[in-house]
Amino acid sequence: MATIKDVAKHAGVSTSTVSHALNKTRYVSADIIERVMKGVEELHYAPSALARSLKLKNTRTFGMLVTTSTNPFFAEVVKGVERRCYEQGYNLLLCNTEGDLDRLNFNIDMLLQKQVDGLLLMSDEVASQNLNIFGRHKPVPTVLMDCGETNFPCDKIQDNSYHGGYLATQYLINKGHSKIGCISGPRDKQATSARFAGYIKAMQEANIEINKKWHAFGNFECEGGKQAFETILVAAGADMPTALFVCNDMMAMGVINTANKHGISVPDDLSIIGYDDISLAKFITPSLTTIHQPKFNLGQKAFDTLLDKIQSRREKNVEINLDPTLVERDSVKALN
Protein backbone atom coordinates (compact mmCIF):
# COMPACT_ATOMS: atom_id res chain seq x y z
CA MET A 1 0.00 0.00 0.00
CA ALA A 2 1.41 3.36 -1.04
CA THR A 3 2.30 5.93 1.62
CA ILE A 4 2.54 9.70 1.54
CA LYS A 5 6.32 9.30 1.27
CA ASP A 6 5.84 7.32 -1.94
CA VAL A 7 3.65 10.08 -3.39
CA ALA A 8 6.20 12.72 -2.39
CA LYS A 9 9.03 10.81 -4.06
CA HIS A 10 6.95 10.27 -7.21
CA ALA A 11 6.08 13.99 -7.42
CA GLY A 12 9.57 15.17 -6.44
CA VAL A 13 8.37 17.18 -3.45
CA SER A 14 8.39 16.90 0.34
CA THR A 15 5.76 15.00 2.31
CA SER A 16 4.57 18.29 3.85
CA THR A 17 3.95 19.70 0.37
CA VAL A 18 1.90 16.63 -0.51
CA SER A 19 -0.10 17.13 2.68
CA HIS A 20 -0.76 20.81 1.92
CA ALA A 21 -1.73 19.97 -1.66
CA LEU A 22 -4.22 17.32 -0.59
CA ASN A 23 -5.69 19.17 2.39
CA LYS A 24 -5.64 22.72 0.99
CA THR A 25 -3.95 23.96 4.14
CA ARG A 26 -1.42 26.18 2.34
CA TYR A 27 -0.90 27.62 -1.11
CA VAL A 28 0.59 25.08 -3.54
CA SER A 29 1.18 25.89 -7.21
CA ALA A 30 -1.06 24.34 -9.84
CA ASP A 31 1.91 22.49 -11.36
CA ILE A 32 2.82 20.80 -8.09
CA ILE A 33 -0.81 19.93 -7.34
CA GLU A 34 -1.02 18.27 -10.75
CA ARG A 35 2.12 16.21 -10.04
CA VAL A 36 0.87 15.22 -6.60
CA MET A 37 -2.55 14.17 -7.90
CA LYS A 38 -0.90 12.19 -10.71
CA GLY A 39 1.16 10.35 -8.08
CA VAL A 40 -1.92 9.71 -5.97
CA GLU A 41 -3.70 8.22 -8.98
CA GLU A 42 -0.83 6.12 -10.31
CA LEU A 43 0.16 4.77 -6.87
CA HIS A 44 -3.47 4.30 -5.73
CA TYR A 45 -2.71 6.27 -2.59
CA ALA A 46 -5.57 6.57 -0.09
CA PRO A 47 -4.83 9.06 2.72
CA SER A 48 -5.86 8.05 6.22
CA ALA A 49 -8.24 10.56 7.76
CA LEU A 50 -7.65 9.01 11.18
CA ALA A 51 -3.87 9.30 10.93
CA ARG A 52 -4.18 12.87 9.77
CA SER A 53 -6.51 13.87 12.60
CA LEU A 54 -4.20 12.30 15.20
CA LYS A 55 -1.19 14.13 13.82
CA LEU A 56 -2.80 17.55 13.37
CA LYS A 57 -5.17 17.25 16.36
CA ASN A 58 -8.20 18.17 14.27
CA THR A 59 -10.70 16.20 12.21
CA ARG A 60 -11.56 18.79 9.52
CA THR A 61 -15.15 17.91 10.31
CA PHE A 62 -18.00 20.19 11.35
CA GLY A 63 -21.21 19.03 12.99
CA MET A 64 -24.49 20.65 11.98
CA LEU A 65 -27.75 20.36 13.88
CA VAL A 66 -31.06 21.39 12.28
CA THR A 67 -34.73 20.95 13.05
CA THR A 68 -36.25 18.44 10.63
CA SER A 69 -38.78 20.12 8.35
CA THR A 70 -40.32 19.65 4.94
CA ASN A 71 -39.57 23.35 4.49
CA PRO A 72 -37.01 23.74 1.67
CA PHE A 73 -35.58 26.67 3.66
CA PHE A 74 -33.43 24.27 5.68
CA ALA A 75 -32.21 22.41 2.61
CA GLU A 76 -31.10 25.65 0.96
CA VAL A 77 -29.13 26.70 4.06
CA VAL A 78 -27.49 23.26 4.30
CA LYS A 79 -26.60 23.49 0.61
CA GLY A 80 -24.63 26.66 1.34
CA VAL A 81 -22.78 24.97 4.19
CA GLU A 82 -22.01 21.87 2.14
CA ARG A 83 -20.68 23.93 -0.76
CA ARG A 84 -18.20 25.72 1.51
CA CYS A 85 -17.21 22.43 3.16
CA TYR A 86 -16.36 21.02 -0.26
CA GLU A 87 -14.41 24.13 -1.26
CA GLN A 88 -12.38 24.14 1.96
CA GLY A 89 -11.86 20.39 2.28
CA TYR A 90 -14.10 19.82 5.30
CA ASN A 91 -16.54 17.04 6.09
CA LEU A 92 -20.04 17.71 7.43
CA LEU A 93 -21.98 15.55 9.88
CA LEU A 94 -25.64 16.58 9.60
CA CYS A 95 -28.12 15.69 12.34
CA ASN A 96 -31.86 16.37 12.72
CA THR A 97 -33.70 16.99 15.98
CA GLU A 98 -37.31 16.59 14.76
CA GLY A 99 -38.19 18.93 17.63
CA ASP A 100 -37.30 16.20 20.14
CA LEU A 101 -35.16 17.31 23.10
CA ASP A 102 -33.87 13.80 23.78
CA ARG A 103 -32.76 13.46 20.19
CA LEU A 104 -31.19 16.92 20.28
CA ASN A 105 -29.10 16.01 23.34
CA PHE A 106 -28.17 12.64 21.84
CA ASN A 107 -26.98 14.25 18.60
CA ILE A 108 -24.93 16.91 20.36
CA ASP A 109 -23.28 14.25 22.55
CA MET A 110 -22.53 12.15 19.47
CA LEU A 111 -21.04 15.05 17.50
CA LEU A 112 -18.82 16.14 20.38
CA GLN A 113 -17.70 12.57 21.08
CA LYS A 114 -16.62 12.38 17.43
CA GLN A 115 -14.44 15.42 18.17
CA VAL A 116 -15.82 17.69 15.47
CA ASP A 117 -13.79 20.88 15.10
CA GLY A 118 -16.88 23.06 15.41
CA LEU A 119 -20.68 23.14 15.54
CA LEU A 120 -23.29 24.84 13.36
CA LEU A 121 -26.65 24.99 15.14
CA MET A 122 -29.97 25.78 13.46
CA SER A 123 -32.43 24.48 15.99
CA ASP A 124 -34.77 26.71 17.99
CA GLU A 125 -34.91 24.13 20.77
CA VAL A 126 -31.35 25.01 21.77
CA ALA A 127 -32.37 28.57 22.62
CA SER A 128 -36.00 28.09 23.66
CA GLN A 129 -35.11 25.37 26.19
CA ASN A 130 -32.19 27.39 27.56
CA LEU A 131 -29.86 24.43 27.05
CA ASN A 132 -26.20 24.40 28.00
CA ILE A 133 -24.97 22.03 25.31
CA PHE A 134 -21.47 21.99 26.80
CA GLY A 135 -22.57 20.95 30.26
CA ARG A 136 -20.88 17.55 29.87
CA HIS A 137 -18.28 18.42 27.23
CA LYS A 138 -15.39 20.71 26.57
CA PRO A 139 -16.71 23.68 24.53
CA VAL A 140 -15.89 23.84 20.82
CA PRO A 141 -16.26 26.83 18.47
CA THR A 142 -19.97 27.20 17.68
CA VAL A 143 -22.14 29.27 15.38
CA LEU A 144 -25.87 29.64 16.05
CA MET A 145 -28.00 30.42 13.01
CA ASP A 146 -31.33 32.24 12.98
CA CYS A 147 -32.18 31.49 16.62
CA GLY A 148 -32.48 33.31 19.95
CA GLU A 149 -30.36 33.81 23.05
CA THR A 150 -28.20 31.08 24.55
CA ASN A 151 -26.42 30.42 27.83
CA PHE A 152 -23.21 29.20 26.20
CA PRO A 153 -20.64 31.15 24.16
CA CYS A 154 -21.18 31.21 20.39
CA ASP A 155 -21.20 33.38 17.31
CA LYS A 156 -24.63 34.26 15.93
CA ILE A 157 -26.00 34.88 12.46
CA GLN A 158 -29.49 36.36 12.42
CA ASP A 159 -31.89 37.10 9.57
CA ASN A 160 -33.31 40.32 11.11
CA SER A 161 -36.86 38.95 11.14
CA TYR A 162 -38.16 42.11 12.80
CA HIS A 163 -37.19 44.21 9.79
CA GLY A 164 -38.55 41.55 7.44
CA GLY A 165 -41.96 41.59 9.14
CA TYR A 166 -41.97 45.38 8.94
CA LEU A 167 -41.07 45.34 5.22
CA ALA A 168 -43.83 42.85 4.40
CA THR A 169 -46.55 44.78 6.21
CA GLN A 170 -45.37 48.16 4.94
CA TYR A 171 -45.56 46.80 1.38
CA LEU A 172 -49.21 45.80 1.88
CA ILE A 173 -49.99 49.21 3.34
CA ASN A 174 -48.30 50.96 0.41
CA LYS A 175 -50.49 48.90 -1.92
CA GLY A 176 -53.55 50.47 -0.33
CA HIS A 177 -54.50 47.77 2.19
CA SER A 178 -55.71 48.66 5.67
CA LYS A 179 -57.53 45.44 6.60
CA ILE A 180 -54.37 43.40 7.13
CA GLY A 181 -54.16 40.16 9.10
CA CYS A 182 -51.20 38.02 10.10
CA ILE A 183 -50.52 34.30 10.31
CA SER A 184 -47.63 33.74 12.70
CA GLY A 185 -45.44 30.71 13.28
CA PRO A 186 -45.19 28.65 16.49
CA ARG A 187 -45.54 30.73 19.64
CA ASP A 188 -42.18 29.65 21.11
CA LYS A 189 -40.07 30.54 18.06
CA GLN A 190 -37.93 33.66 18.09
CA ALA A 191 -38.64 34.31 14.41
CA THR A 192 -42.38 34.27 15.15
CA SER A 193 -42.26 37.03 17.75
CA ALA A 194 -39.78 39.11 15.73
CA ARG A 195 -41.79 39.01 12.48
CA PHE A 196 -45.03 39.74 14.32
CA ALA A 197 -43.38 42.67 16.11
CA GLY A 198 -42.38 44.07 12.70
CA TYR A 199 -45.99 43.71 11.57
CA ILE A 200 -47.19 45.57 14.67
CA LYS A 201 -44.69 48.40 14.11
CA ALA A 202 -45.76 48.97 10.50
CA MET A 203 -49.46 48.93 11.43
CA GLN A 204 -48.97 51.37 14.30
CA GLU A 205 -46.88 53.74 12.19
CA ALA A 206 -49.71 53.86 9.64
CA ASN A 207 -52.34 54.32 12.42
CA ILE A 208 -54.13 51.17 11.28
CA GLU A 209 -56.16 49.22 13.81
CA ILE A 210 -55.10 45.63 14.42
CA ASN A 211 -58.02 43.20 14.39
CA LYS A 212 -57.31 40.22 16.65
CA LYS A 213 -59.76 38.09 14.65
CA TRP A 214 -57.35 38.31 11.74
CA HIS A 215 -54.40 36.83 13.63
CA ALA A 216 -53.71 33.12 14.02
CA PHE A 217 -50.73 30.84 14.71
CA GLY A 218 -49.42 28.11 12.43
CA ASN A 219 -46.48 25.70 12.52
CA PHE A 220 -44.34 26.90 9.57
CA GLU A 221 -45.70 24.04 7.41
CA CYS A 222 -48.37 24.00 4.67
CA GLU A 223 -50.84 22.24 6.95
CA GLY A 224 -50.30 24.89 9.62
CA GLY A 225 -51.11 27.62 7.11
CA LYS A 226 -54.31 25.80 6.15
CA GLN A 227 -55.43 25.42 9.76
CA ALA A 228 -54.56 29.02 10.69
CA PHE A 229 -56.46 30.40 7.70
CA GLU A 230 -59.52 28.32 8.56
CA THR A 231 -59.32 29.72 12.11
CA ILE A 232 -59.43 33.24 10.68
CA LEU A 233 -62.33 32.31 8.38
CA VAL A 234 -64.42 31.18 11.35
CA ALA A 235 -63.45 34.10 13.61
CA ALA A 236 -63.85 36.83 10.97
CA GLY A 237 -67.03 35.62 9.31
CA ALA A 238 -68.07 38.12 6.66
CA ASP A 239 -65.56 40.70 7.92
CA MET A 240 -62.46 39.29 6.24
CA PRO A 241 -59.15 41.11 5.75
CA THR A 242 -58.10 42.14 2.25
CA ALA A 243 -54.50 41.05 2.86
CA LEU A 244 -52.49 38.63 5.00
CA PHE A 245 -48.87 38.69 6.03
CA VAL A 246 -48.01 35.00 6.37
CA CYS A 247 -44.79 34.47 8.30
CA ASN A 248 -43.25 31.88 5.99
CA ASP A 249 -43.74 30.65 2.44
CA MET A 250 -44.78 27.11 3.33
CA MET A 251 -47.76 28.39 5.32
CA ALA A 252 -48.51 30.92 2.58
CA MET A 253 -48.81 28.08 0.07
CA GLY A 254 -51.20 26.30 2.44
CA VAL A 255 -53.27 29.50 2.69
CA ILE A 256 -53.46 29.97 -1.09
CA ASN A 257 -54.57 26.37 -1.59
CA THR A 258 -57.20 26.60 1.16
CA ALA A 259 -58.49 29.98 -0.01
CA ASN A 260 -59.01 28.53 -3.49
CA LYS A 261 -61.04 25.65 -2.05
CA HIS A 262 -63.27 28.19 -0.28
CA GLY A 263 -63.82 30.15 -3.49
CA ILE A 264 -61.55 33.00 -2.38
CA SER A 265 -59.36 34.28 -5.20
CA VAL A 266 -55.74 35.29 -4.55
CA PRO A 267 -55.02 38.14 -5.12
CA ASP A 268 -58.41 39.45 -6.35
CA ASP A 269 -60.22 38.75 -3.05
CA LEU A 270 -57.26 38.29 -0.73
CA SER A 271 -53.66 39.45 -1.11
CA ILE A 272 -50.89 37.34 0.45
CA ILE A 273 -47.24 38.04 1.16
CA GLY A 274 -44.96 35.32 2.49
CA TYR A 275 -41.51 35.09 4.03
CA ASP A 276 -38.30 33.19 3.10
CA ASP A 277 -38.45 33.19 -0.73
CA ILE A 278 -37.97 29.43 -0.98
CA SER A 279 -37.29 28.07 -4.46
CA LEU A 280 -40.91 26.93 -4.91
CA ALA A 281 -42.37 30.39 -4.25
CA LYS A 282 -42.08 31.60 -7.83
CA PHE A 283 -43.64 28.46 -9.31
CA ILE A 284 -46.99 28.36 -7.50
CA THR A 285 -50.09 30.13 -8.87
CA PRO A 286 -50.15 33.00 -8.29
CA SER A 287 -46.38 33.32 -7.84
CA LEU A 288 -45.73 34.45 -4.28
CA THR A 289 -44.69 37.94 -3.30
CA THR A 290 -42.42 37.37 -0.33
CA ILE A 291 -39.52 38.49 1.84
CA HIS A 292 -36.24 37.05 0.63
CA GLN A 293 -33.82 35.53 3.12
CA PRO A 294 -30.30 34.92 1.76
CA LYS A 295 -30.47 31.23 2.66
CA PHE A 296 -27.52 29.94 0.64
CA ASN A 297 -25.45 32.90 1.82
CA LEU A 298 -26.57 32.22 5.40
CA GLY A 299 -25.08 28.73 5.17
CA GLN A 300 -21.86 29.97 3.58
CA LYS A 301 -21.52 32.82 6.08
CA ALA A 302 -22.04 30.42 8.98
CA PHE A 303 -19.25 28.17 7.70
CA ASP A 304 -16.89 31.10 7.09
CA THR A 305 -17.58 32.53 10.55
CA LEU A 306 -16.89 29.17 12.20
CA LEU A 307 -13.71 28.63 10.20
CA ASP A 308 -12.51 32.13 11.07
CA LYS A 309 -13.11 31.50 14.77
CA ILE A 310 -11.04 28.31 14.59
CA GLN A 311 -8.17 29.66 12.51
CA SER A 312 -7.86 33.05 14.22
CA ARG A 313 -8.40 31.57 17.70
CA ARG A 314 -10.44 34.64 18.57
CA GLU A 315 -12.25 34.57 21.89
CA LYS A 316 -14.69 37.41 21.23
CA ASN A 317 -18.09 36.28 19.94
CA VAL A 318 -19.61 38.11 16.97
CA GLU A 319 -23.19 38.66 15.84
CA ILE A 320 -23.94 39.12 12.14
CA ASN A 321 -27.26 40.32 10.72
CA LEU A 322 -28.25 39.45 7.15
CA ASP A 323 -30.83 41.93 5.87
CA PRO A 324 -34.00 40.59 4.19
CA THR A 325 -35.32 42.13 0.96
CA LEU A 326 -38.71 42.28 -0.77
CA VAL A 327 -39.42 40.12 -3.83
CA GLU A 328 -42.48 41.36 -5.72
CA ARG A 329 -44.49 38.80 -7.71
CA ASP A 330 -48.23 38.24 -8.32
CA SER A 331 -49.97 37.45 -5.01
CA VAL A 332 -50.67 41.03 -3.88
CA LYS A 333 -53.31 43.26 -5.48
CA ALA A 334 -52.96 47.03 -5.41
CA LEU A 335 -56.10 48.70 -4.01
CA ASN A 336 -54.89 52.24 -4.57
Derived from helix and strand composition plus strand pairing, the structural class reads: alpha/beta
- CATH fold annotation of the largest domain: Rossmann fold
What would you report as the Rg, rounded to the nearest angstrom?
Answer: 24 Å
Succession of helices and strands: HHHHEHEHEHEEHEHEHEHEEHEE
Shape descriptor reads elongated
CA-to-CA gap between the ends? 76 Å
Rounded mean pLDDT score: 91
CATH architecture descriptor of the largest domain: 3-Layer(aba) Sandwich
The major pleated sheet works out as: 6 strands, parallel
Please report the number of helical segments: 12
Question: Into which percent range does the helicity of residues fall?
Answer: 40-55%
Please tell me about this protein's structure.
With 336 residues, the protein is α/β, with parallel strands linked by helices. The chain folds into 3 domains: 4-47, no CATH class; 59-159 and 295-322, 3-Layer(aba) Sandwich (Rossmann fold); 161-293, 3-Layer(aba) Sandwich (Rossmann fold). 45% of the residues lie in helices and 16% in strands. The chain is built from 12 helices and 12 strands. The strands form 2 sheets. It has a 6-stranded parallel β-sheet, sandwiched between helices. The chain is elongated. The model has no long low-confidence stretch (mean pLDDT 91).
